[in-house]
Design a protein that fits this description.
The structure holds 2 protein chains of 2 kinds.
Chain A: E1 4-7, E2 10-13, E3 19-25, E4 31-37, E5 44-51, E6 54-57, E7 65-67, E8 73-78, E9 87-94, E10 104-105, E11 109-113
Parallel strand pairs in A: 2-11
Antiparallel strand pairs in A: 1-3, 3-8, 4-5, 4-9, 5-6, 7-8, 9-10, 9-11
Chain B: E1 3-5, E2 10-14, E3 19-21, E4 24-26, E5 32-38, E6 44-50, E7 56-58, E8 64-68, E9 73-78, E10 88-94, E11 102-104, E12 108-113
Parallel strand pairs in B: 2-12
Antiparallel strand pairs in B: 1-4, 3-9, 5-6, 5-10, 7-8, 8-9, 10-11, 10-12
Classes of the chains: A mainly beta, B mainly beta.
């Protein structure tokens, strides 16, 4: 049982390049989330999904797009990377939206934009 | 809007000593409160959570936290720390009305000295 996995673990991009981060969960969870973590700040929610085929904006959605074509996968895209998007990105999943259910986190993707 | 403050960026304690990490929250009603721990290069792991009822909650790894409504606090404690407790700790608050999302504090890094 792998839980939540993220691909890749590390990536360096040049300004203006695009990339997609992949999150996969094998717990049959309905809800999935993308967060970013920056030094001196807590995790901030970028986008989330309440189920296959649905997505919604979080606290800091600008510059990112997401897709949830399959229940187990949640993709985060950067169409034109900017240095301000240098961060560690975490994916999480939970059984439902209710906070009664724990969010399980992946190990993170460290992205550097030069 | 809900918010979380962790006033201590970095705390150093001796192995075997007691520990208290502070967390203050701002929320209009009874919040859902969480403590997460993050090891280097890893995702967040849930230590404990408070929803209602007994204000002293027990978690994994020997941690406990006490909800004090009058002080808007949810401090994390451990009677005797071990070297393996050296990690970063995040407090988070969530609501159970509508916007069921977590708001994280900025984290407290714990260093253990022999």
């Amino acid at each position: 049982n792998a839980g939540v996995t993220q691909t890749p673990k590390f990536r360096v991009l040049k300004t203006g390049q695009s990339m997609t981060l992949l999150c996969a969960q094998d717990m049959n969870h309905e809800y999935m989330y993308w967060y970013r973590q920056d030094p001196g700040m807590g995790l901030r929610l970028i986008h989330y999904s309440v189920g296959e085929g649905t997505t919604a904006k979080g606290e800091v959605p600008d510059g990112y797009n997401v897709s949830r074509l399959k229940k187990q996968n949640f993709l985060l895209g950067l169409e034109s990377a900017a240095p301000s998007q240098t961060s560690v990105y975490f994916c999480a999943s939970s059984k439902t939206s209710s906070l009664l259910y724990e969010q399980y986190f992946g190990p993170g993707t460290r992205l550097t934009v030069t | 809007a809900q918010s979380v403050t962790q006033p201590d960026i970095h705390i150093t304690v001796s192995e075997g000593a007691s520990l208290e990490l502070r967390c203050n929250y701002s929320y209009g009603a009874t919040p859902y409160l969480f403590w997460y721990v993050q090891s280097p290069g890893q995702g967040l792991q849930l230590l404990l959570k408070y929803f209602s009822g007994d204000t002293l909650v027990q978690g994994i790894k020997g941690f406990e936290a006490e909800f004090k409504r009058s002080q808007s606090s949810f401090n994390l404690r451990k009677p005797s720390v071990h070297w393996s407790d050296a990690d970063e700790y995040f407090c988070a608050v969530g609501s159970n009305f509508g916007n069921e999302k977590l708001t994280f504090g900025t984290g407290t890094r714990l260093t253990i000295i022999p």
